[in-house]
């Protein structure tokens, strides 16, 4: 997440340097790397359009708004206003990060499978790819209410792990796991198509995993 600031120095004729406006780069909705209908029949175009253009876009807008308020609170040194913004930053920042990972680790069904170093690590840490999927599915299905199931990388112990989060805490900050692949089990991710049958949605999503991308994220996480 880019929390970069650009400090612009503007020289004025007298030669005095003036430290001018602090510009914050706004977060933007990342491009969806495929069409809304590209994951059908596993995830419907209707879900994809709503999920991306409404839900994810709202996280992005609200994150930008919360950051603007944060700038204002900082400018006036208002500690209680700064603290009060924490939940909005966490919720919308978390939503933006999670969904950005989600879109890029999905892809039209090609029958591709985990391979290479990623597959070797999965087999080492879970016995087999099927065992890993079963464990990730089980954790995702078991999330009470809204949340995510994750395949993550524990860098300290150099192993892959499954985690499920029902609250709003970001995966990395609370579990130390670097997120590799996440399953969004908020109802907005499946209800229009799967109704209350979350297990069917979780089962179907394995048809549209972009394993190459997950492997790429694994390689980066190890660096
Ligand atoms: C983002 O993922 C974290 C970790 O799984 C989760 O706790 C949180 O609820 C998610 N946030 C949103 C808005 O989906
Ligand atoms: Fe979502």
From TrEMBL:
Ranges that cross the membrane = none
Q: Which residues form the Manganese/iron superoxide dismutase N-terminal domain?
A: 26-106
What is the top-level taxon of the source organism? Eukaryota
Q: Which Pfam families match?
A: Sod_Fe_C (PF02777), Sod_Fe_N (PF00081)
Q: Where in the cell is it found?
A: Mitochondrion matrix
Give the main localization category: mitochondrion
Manganese/iron superoxide dismutase C-terminal domain boundaries: 115-217
Q: Recorded GO terms, molecular function?
A: manganese ion binding; superoxide dismutase activity
What Gene3D superfamilies does this protein map onto? Fe,Mn superoxide dismutase (SOD) domain (1.10.287.990), Iron/manganese superoxide dismutase, C-terminal domain (3.55.40.20)
Annotated binding of Mn(2+), by residue: 51, 99, 184, 188
Give the cofactors, semicolon-separated: Mn(2+)
Cited SUPFAM superfamilies: Fe,Mn superoxide dismutase (SOD), C-terminal domain, Fe,Mn superoxide dismutase (SOD), N-terminal domain
For this UniProt record, give its keywords in alphabetical order, as a comma-separated list: Manganese, Metal-binding, Mitochondrion, Oxidoreductase
Report the EC code(s) recorded for this entry.
Answer: 1.15.1.1
Q: Which GO terms describe its cellular component?
A: mitochondrial matrix
Record's catalysed reaction(s): 2 superoxide + 2 H(+) = H2O2 + O2
Q: Which PANTHER family match?
A: SUPEROXIDE DISMUTASE 2, SUPEROXIDE DISMUTASE [MN], MITOCHONDRIAL
Q: Which family does it belong to?
A: Belongs to the iron/manganese superoxide dismutase family.
Summarize the subunit comment: Homotetramer.
Biological role stated in the UniProt entry? Destroys radicals which are normally produced within the cells and which are toxic to biological systems.
Protein's UniProt name = Superoxide dismutase
The taxonomic lineage of its organism, from the top, reads: Eukaryota, Metazoa, Chordata, Tunicata, Ascidiacea
Primary gene name: Sod2-001
